[in-house]
Amino acid sequence: MVEIKTDAxxxxxxxxxxxxxxxxxxxxxxxxVGVSLLDLDTAAHEVLRAAGASSPFLGYHPDFAPVxxxxxxxxxxxxxxxxxxxxxxxxxxGDLVSVDFGAVLDGWAGDSAISFTVGRARGEDxxxxxxxxxxxxxxxxxxxxxxxxGDIAHAIGKVCRGAGYGIPEDFGGHGIxxxxxxxxxxxxxxxxxxxxxxxxxxxxxxxxxxxxxGTDGYYPAPDxxxxxxxxxxxxxxxxxxVAITDSGPRILTLV
Length: 255
Hints:
By secondary structure, the protein is an alpha+beta fold.
């Protein structure tokens, strides 16, 4: 069931989104050659604590995972697409990093993700990341009252496929509100004019994931969480929590 939020509830989600945005900025600021992934998680966690918010990631245990998620941030490096578990790996010059983060404040959730490079960026990584943000912007632009879920999916897929990138099968965005994952699902590829009609008060996490060589496959790492590209190429992940309003899409996960 899709929960329609009131304007006041969307305002409350905006405050949770601010916490998410600040935590992601802190993680990015902390990143550098020689910095561990655990350090990035710690930087984000400090923002969470200071805001009096809680983490929807820490302890999250879906059916597919062998253990609860052990951190507040997913940190995925290079060929890791999503759900990377922060560990003692120390960032190297040229690494591509994606950080996915959520927060719950006063009972409402926010969810967002960023991708960036550390040190000297490779040209192909800059293009991959730039396209991921372009796909996110296209998806958000399609998130208007009267459009359908398929219009968002088509907008994202058109950008990704048009640039020659792959899209991980069966992964995409989702509704969000009192819970991190709610209905409806928001695919990263689809046909326009199909799916649920978008209404004022719907809130969606829109999150393109791109694979550099145009393939769509992935496999789970031994930790049971991290998803890696089958061919070992790099991936990028971007995301915003977006409210559907009569005045247009409202991004809730900005500072």
